[in-house]
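Ticket 4471: requesting a sanity check on a complex prediction with zinc ion. Repro inputs:
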Amino acid sequence: MTYLEKSKEKLNTLRNRNDYLILAFESSCDETAVAVTRGREVLSSVISSQIEIHKRFGGVVPEIASRNHALAIDSITKEALEKAGVTFDDIDAIAVTYGAGLLGALLVGVSYAKALAYTLEKPLIACNHIKGHIAANYISAPDLEPPFICLLASGGHTYILKVNAFDDMEIMGETQDDAVGEAFDKVARVLGLPYPGGPEIDKLARLGKPSYKLPRAFKGEKHLNFSYSGLKTAVINLVANTKARGGEIIPEDLACSFQTEATGVLIENTIEAAKRSGITTICLAGGVGANSALRDGLTKAGQKAHCKVLLPPRSLCTDNAAMIGICAYEEIKCGIEPAELTLDANPGL
Ligand code: KG4
Ligand code: ZN
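Returned structure tokens:
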């Protein structure tokens, strides 16, 4: 039997069980992460962040990210197994993010997971990073089942999704240009804040008030899409023009004004998506899901609209491998086939 035939056979024996162990890998950007999961339970989740390495460059340098994944992945794997109290032999399936993300960074996780799956003769599950973020909600709310509305707000993607089933999702609203996290990071840079800018703006905004008037794209439109390039450019121009006139920006107020606007449109459109679809459960996912204004605003707006709002803890909003393990578990339940050893990284997945 070939490796793939054996994988299919092994995966079929897992489909009706919920007690098997998954070793999951995530290396799409600047976190090397490995986790061991069982069903919707996380036995261990180890994250080696490269933030300090990339800080001095003001953003993620792809080749440096790949190199540091290669350096860290083996020891992080051993740590994840140790923390879960299991060995390679106990693992039933391997899961890995194969997109979206940085090509070189993804390839480290994909290659390592493929080598391991082949050597250990375990089925390999190829996971979509974005679906992984959505799956993070199942960790903090293990009884959650579709349908639900999910606001996915990360550094690379911004979507309002109607999740009918884990393998059936509809986009109800999406960004027409920049992702919201990207806008946070760019505005932070203009304000002289370090990378990653989102958490820095979040902190600074708490000290300010939304005194600057900033534009909202698509105001009054029927669709639920949004745009961040106009908002970002407005902040950049405001800072440049104020400096050119010899004036001074109030950074706390500008951070607060930007954050209020950037999160306000997401909150309004997500609530509207829930109303239009008649779905009363709302979930949050992605790194920007750690933002205080977004979390508070969505909770309040959800209560007003009689919706149940589920917020995963901040540590599950940003990149981690536990969400990839849960994603693989849900995909297996939905009938996914094991990946072949020709599995490639797909940066634009
Ligand atoms: O999901 P994630 O960890 O990686 C991607 O898949 O992109 O998201 C990273 C993004 C970055 O843009 C970061 O600045 C943003 O999430 N972020 C935040 C906060 N924490 C992380 N944005 C706003 N407020 C935060 N507290
Ligand atoms: Zn992510």
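Notes from triage: The longest strand covers residues 41-49. Leaving this open until the requester confirms.
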